[in-house]
Structure formats: C-alpha cells, structure tokens
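Hey team,

Filing this mostly as a record. A colleague (T.K.) asked me to run one chain through the structure pipeline before their review meeting, and I want the input and output archived in the tracker in case anyone asks later how it was produced. No errors, nothing strange. Just documentation.

Input sequence:
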Amino acid sequence: MFLVCLMKRMKSLLMNFSCMFESFFLPLLLVILFSITIPDAKYMNFSSIPVSLIGSSENYSKLYHAMQVAKSSTGENLFQVSLCTKVVATDKLASGDIVAYIETNNGFHITAKSGEAKAAVIKAYVDWYESVQGDDILNMDMQYAIDKCAEKDFNRNEIYFLSLLAFAALSSLYWGVRMVLDFKGDYSVGTRMMVAPVSKAAMAYENILAVFTISFFENAAIVLAVDRLEGMNLIPYFSYIMVVLVLTSIVGIEIGVYIGILDIGGEKFKHRLCSAIMIISSFLAGLFMFKIRYVIDDNVPLIAVLNPVHVATDALYCIYFTYEMEQYTKNLLILCCLAIALAVGIILLTRRKNHVRV
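Output structure:
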C-alpha cells in the first residue's frame, strides 16, 4: 500500500511542469548552453611549472632538491624551480613569470593566482612531500600527482560545470515548496489530502521520499549530461559526486519547506523567492563569474560557509581536480550541519504554528 501511494505521489509531482522545469529542464538547458558557449581553456602540452621558493630553513633546501628531480611521465622536469626573496617572487607572480611561490620558514605556504589550475599540481606535490618528508618513495608517490594532474589536459572552465551541478542540486528547493503547498487545505491537492483516509505521518513520509527520489534521479541525469556533453569524465567520481549532490538536495528541500511554511505571499511569491535564492547563491558561488568565489572566500568566509552551492562546488572541485579528501570531507560535514540546522528550524517553526492553532 505504501509503495502504491508513493508511486502515485511521484506521478503527481512529475506532472507539475513548473517544478520539473525549474529543477531539471532549466539546469539541463544550462548544461547544453554552457557546452556550446564556454570555450575550452586547456593546457594541451604540459611543460615544466615555474615556481619560486622563499626561506632559509632546512626544509627549504630539501624541498628545493626534491622539486628539482621530480619528473613527468615523459621524463621531463615537473617543476622549473628558482630561489628568490619574497619581494622578487611577488613581482614574478604578478608578471606571470611563475605560477606560484612557496614560503618555507614556518611550514609550507603556497601563494598562487586565483583560478590557476597548475597550482593544484604544486599543492599536490607539497602535500605529498610533507607526508613522506623526503623519503625514497617520494617519486613513486608523486606519480599520483603526475598522472592525475600533470597529464590531465586541464580545462579551467570545467569549474563552471561543477558549479552548475551544485546549482542543479539546490534547485530541489522548488520541490520542498511544492510538498508543503500540497499539504495546505486551501489548495485542491491539499484539500484531498486532508480528507484522505491515510495517516498524516505516512502521507508526510511518502511526500518526503517521493521528492527525495525525484531529486536523486534528476541529479544523476544532470551528472550524466555533463559527462557526455562536456566530456569531463565524471563517471569515475560518480559516487563521490552523488554524495555531495544528495546532501545539497536535502538542504535545498529543507529551504523549500521552510519557505513553504512561512506565511508570506502566495505560491507565485514563494517561487519568485526560490528563484532569487538560486540566483544569488549560484552567483556568489561563481557560476557566472568564477573569480567571485575567491573574493567571497577571502573577504566574507561566513557567507561561503552558509552558501550550500559554494560548499558543494568546493567539494566537487576537491574530488575532481585536487583529490583533497580532507577538504572534501570537511565540506560534506558543513552540508550535514546546514541540513541539521534547517531541520531543527523547520521542527521548531512547525511546532510553534501548531501551538498557535490550538
């Protein structure tokens, strides 16, 4: 009985063209549009990466020699290393003579231009170097960074598609609004639900599961569309990507439920509010101009943490470009905290409304 009701509820939701367009067809159209209009920005022929070292400690000398002998899979030097002061390194970075510089006095601190893809190779190398501390197996370990970063034809504009995946996941907030509105007695569907001989708790579970299932398959379809249309080879990371998108969808659904519960405006106003949230959050996450993401990170980090599209984009970047599992896990925890906080807020708001009715 539960499964039959669930299938009927999913069919009812899928017949809602407005939600289907905003949560699936619009992101799909954006994927097609981005694939056509955004040019490739690839490093087709990988060459030695120019980098400068700054410092005078023992680590400074060891890292310098290690980076000098690091080789690419074709036998060429992976890095073009130079020694200089911070003033000179800053000038070189500004003029584009180097990709990044590394300060070694107190640990290792990498400074690079925002959006510089090759900096990911440097960061991966330094992370591995710190973990093995000049061990003999350093060259074998670094094959990981070489295979995954150096040989990959970096397309810097692929980051827009990662932001688009996060945008598509958050669009589940439209389903959250729809779910709440369908429970209200002043709507035709809500009226039928109020008199249906079914437990209201069971009906709520059916709605939540139906919305979650639809969002899951929408996200999976968008990932496959990006993989095929843009050729980003997302399938090897599919499970990691789906974990991020599922958590983002849960946050989106909860935001939609919260908007639906609030006694502000009608259905059209709530949908406009959802659209405003989508546009603002995706803009701040760099969907339309990726450098905005770094500006927010550097100047208003709290907004970055509270923006689910920003957090999801960062998690996807970590798993697709740099393989930073620690940062990836941190982003997942942030999304979980956002989901829990929103759930608590929804429960408190719902209970308060029930008490007011009594």
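Quick notes for T.K.: Confidence is low (pLDDT under 50) at residues 136-154, 188-192. The chain is about 70% helix and 5% strand.
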